Amino acid sequence: MKNKKLFSFVLAFSYLAMSMALAVQAQPAQQTDEQKLLQSLHSISSHKLFDYVKELALDKYAGRLTGTEGYNASAEWVASHFKKWGIKPAGDKGTYLQSFPNPYTLVFKDCEVYLHIPYKKSVLKKHYKYEDEFIPGATSGSGEVTAEVIYVGYGATAPELGYDDYKGVDVKGKIVLMEREAPVSTNDAELFMKWRPYSFHQYKLENAVKHGAKGMIYNYGPISNPNNSYDKNFIYSHVGRVVVEDVFSGTGMKHSDVVKKIRKTLKPQSFATGKTVTIKNTTEHYPDGIGTNVIGILEGSDPVLKKEVIIIGGHLDHLGLCYELMPGANDNASAVAVIMGIAEAMTECPIKPRRSVMFLLFGAEEQGIVGSEYYCDNPIVSLEKTVGLINMDGVGCGDRIRALAAENFPEFWEFINKANEKYIHRVVRTSYFANIARPRLDAARFMWKGVPTISFSVSGSQSYYHITKDDIDTITPEILEDMAQLIFVAVLDMANQDSVDFRK
After folding, report:
1. Quick one: what percent of the chain has pLDDT higher than 70?
2. CB burial of residue 195 (10 Å; 0-12, 13-18, 19+)
3. Residue 229 CB: number of other CB atoms within 10 A?
4. Mean pLDDT over all residues of the chain?
5. Quick one: pLDDT band at residue 504, thresholds 50, 70, 90?
6. If I label 294, which of 64, 160, 173, 285 is the partner at 20 to 30 A Cα–Cα?
7. Which helix (H) or strand (E) element contains residue 203?
8. Does a structural domain hold residue 415?
9. Are residue 305 and residue 442 in the same domain, yes or no?
């Protein structure tokens, strides 16, 4: 009896030992940090990011012009994802939205530009094609103007430079034809800085109004651009090569030769063209418009380092309707999608960033880089505690990545370069950014405030800028995934360093 009990005990113990051994064998081995990182890295999906771009380019957001219902809906859509992922709101009054004043203008379909051509005893009208040959001025007054066209070069009155495009010509009640930018290059920084104030769209329009002009055909694309002043009595449109050449035709001058002469001599070449043009635009202006930035924060895990923040940013807005839908798939739904992919991966990653990471989507970039300017003047985390900004603008078309200002901040760049060499293996072209021209991207505002910034864009396939063709069909899903994975790894790495200082 005794032996039987002993045998049963031994048998039970053997079964228990065997079960425990099998249980230990069945448990997975402890994941290394590298395995955890790779798991989170591969959770970023090109399919999901492409769907984000597709969503933001839909008609229901009406081109995401800041201040409009369409833009507000897109901001709420992004914020809803941040909330779902557990990213903390960092906007006004416990929301994800930081509000700022932002006037805006709506453009409707009844717009046209046409040339009056005398023929025998009558006048023929040459109507120009929307988008191919003209696009309405996105901050134009509403109405119609028919007048002679006066060519006024770069539209500058600069007495300190001995230069005045309006000297010797009478533009009162007329339409001016004007060049964009300035007659000097940024390559000569000292000279350019003297001309810089005269390169702004706002200056050019306001100076034309000051001289009594009633309208403008702006040699700019033609593309849409809501970054300009508004005057209810001033009607203008953007035009391209066809319109400009028609205005110059029969004057005895060639447009390209006139521009070259201005740039070479820095002397005005203004003249009355003798051509009559009609500009008609139908618009509504909203002087009390309100814009918003979308801001979420993933708080750092370290009680001290969490007071420092790394910003991953890009603008959410685009051009709205001008008068057709401008979808803005690449510019800049692509960057918003990448930021969202990074945000979700970081919240789910077992490796938590010790520093805080901010996901910042700017409003009104297209209307004068306004949202980023407002943030820099009203930062959620002090700019002194901001390690750096990774900005993205147009990262959805192609396979070649450009890192603007990477050469300004080599230690900042090294984190990104290291991530690329180890995991992504894309061609990345770096460059230096002098940042002396009028601001064209959100990164410029931060750099002027002393915040280290690298700004990414992508090229290498057919893309379109500020026209209706910037749609989902141009997007390269694979580059969205690689951009998101690249920034995810680099930011997690720098967020977990004991010390980083890119300002030095």
Report:
1. 94
2. buried
3. 16
4. 94
5. confident
6. 285
7. helix 201-210
8. yes
9. yes
Phi, psi of 307 (to 5 degrees): -75, -15
Phi-psi map region of 137: left, alpha, beta (phi>0 left; psi -120 to 50 alpha): beta
319 and 389 in a common domain: yes
pLDDT per residue over 10-62, tens digit each?
Answer: 445 455 455 555 444 554 568 898 888 888 889 999 999 999 999 999 999 99
> Is 120 inside a domain boundary?
yes
**C-beta separation of 290 from 102 below 8 A:** yes
Domain of residue 234, CATH code: 3.50.30.30
- Domains in the chain, number: 2
* Cα distances (Å, whole numbers) of residue 247 to 96, 149, 211, 396: 50, 8, 21, 37
Task: Show the tokens assigned to 116.
Answer: 């009056």
Q: Which amino acid is at 450?
A: G
* Contact of 392 with 456, CB cutoff 8 Å: yes
DSSP alpha helix (H) spans, 276-432:
334-348, 370-377, 410-419
Q: What is the mean pLDDT of residues 474-486?
A: 98
d(CA 229, CA 236): 11
* SS3 at position 296: strand
327 shares its domain with 429: yes
pLDDT at position 142 over 70: yes
Q: What is the pLDDT of residues 455-476, one digit of tens each?
A: 999 999 999 999 999 999 999 9
**Which residue has 């009028």 as its token pair?**
438
Task: Please report whether residue 302 resides in a domain.
Answer: yes
pLDDT value of position 40? 85
Which residue, among 443, 442, 480, has the nearest Cα to 461 in the 3D structure?
480
Determine the number of helices (DSSP H) and then strands (DSSP E) in the chain.
13, 21
Q: Determine how many CB atoms are found less than 10 A away from the CB of residue 241.
A: 13
Write down the H helix ranges in 229-350. Answer: 241-248, 255-265, 334-348
pLDDT of residue 22: 47
**For the whole model, what pTM was predicted?**
0.92
**Listed residue (169, 144, 153) closest to 277, CA to CA:** 144
CATH number of the CATH domain containing 336: 3.40.630.10
Which secondary structure element, helix H or strand E, spans residue 386, and what is its range?
A: strand 386-392
Boundary of a domain, candidates 232, 267, 284: 284
Pair (170, 222) in one structural domain: yes
Q: Does residue 420 share a domain with residue 329?
A: yes
Q: Which residues does residue 376 pair with via DSSP β-bridges, in sequence order?
A: none
Are 65 and 318 in contact by the 8 Å Cβ rule? The answer is yes
**Neighbouring C-alpha atoms within 13 Å toward the C-beta of 339:** 35
Which letter, b or e, does each residue of 342-361 get, where b requires 16 or more Cβ atoms within 10 Å of its Cβ?
A: bbbbbbebebebbbbbbbbb
